[in-house]
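Renewal narrative, Specific Aim 1. Our central claim is that a sequence can be written position by position from structural information alone. The example that follows is taken directly from our test logs and has not been curated for this report. It begins with the structure tokens describing the chain, in the order in which they were read.
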């Protein structure tokens, strides 16, 4: 798994789970960045303390050329949860009924990992 410190690393890891690693991609980068942004906003809604001291979310601009080297500021312990959110959002677009249940499970896993206490 990538270090998950940059936009590009989140896209790469999400593509790995989506089995969408070779061009032409099924899921466009700008859609994945939109999902990443929504995931950050959802993380802030669920766990505002992760965004202290200023409660700011590092928004990634999906318009134009995407800066894949842009940092995504999130505690390392919750980075894989954000990947689950991106993958879940991408799979919600698919029509197949089995994918819907997987997408729901991934989105629930995102929330569970943000809200559970690990010992």
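The sequence written for that structure reads:
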């Amino acid at each position: 798994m990538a270090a998950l410190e940059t936009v590009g690393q989140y896209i790469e890891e999400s593509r790995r789970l989506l089995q969408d690693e070779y061009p032409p991609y099924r899921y466009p980068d700008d859609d994945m960045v939109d999902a990443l942004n929504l995931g950050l906003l959802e993380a802030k809604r669920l766990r505002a303390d992760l965004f202290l001291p200023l409660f700011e979310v590092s928004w990634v601009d999906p318009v134009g050329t995407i800066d894949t080297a842009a940092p995504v500021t999130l505690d390392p312990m919750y980075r894989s949860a954000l990947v689950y959110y991106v993958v879940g959002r991408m799979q919600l677009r698919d029509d197949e009924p089995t994918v819907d249940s997987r997408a729901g499970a991934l989105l629930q896993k995102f929330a569970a990992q943000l809200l559970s206490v690990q010992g």
